[in-house]
Amino acid sequence: MGVVLRVDLSSRKIVKEPLEEELHLKYYGGRGLNAKFLYDELKPGIDSLGPDNKIIFGAGPCTGTLVPSSQRFTVTTKSPITGFIGDSNCGSSFGARLKYA
């Protein structure tokens, strides 16, 4: 149903992967999926400002539709301030562009 686009800025590689339907149903929306990916893929104790940290941009299932207030996306990473996962939710046409990239 969805797609995961992995962009490695160091190697300049882009890989497009299908999003497993189970993940899509269990971790609904950009924020839930972003948190799941970070939880699974970040090694404990990594430096939040180091190269192993990830910044994840995610769009929800209604993003890019005519549903009111649905033009939103979420950015999630390990925070250098708290050391915990933090996220920010933003609204603009970028969310729809991200979803259909």
Automatic annotation (TrEMBL):
Stretch forming the signal peptide: none
GO molecular function, a single term: iron-sulfur cluster binding
Sequence ranges assigned to domain Aldehyde ferredoxin oxidoreductase N-terminal in this UniProt record: 1-101
InterPro entries, alphabetized: Ald_Fedxn_OxRdtase_N, Ald_Fedxn_OxRdtase_N_sf, W-dependent_AOR
Name of the featured protein: Aldehyde ferredoxin oxidoreductase N-terminal domain-containing protein
Species lineage: unclassified sequences, metagenomes, ecological metagenomes
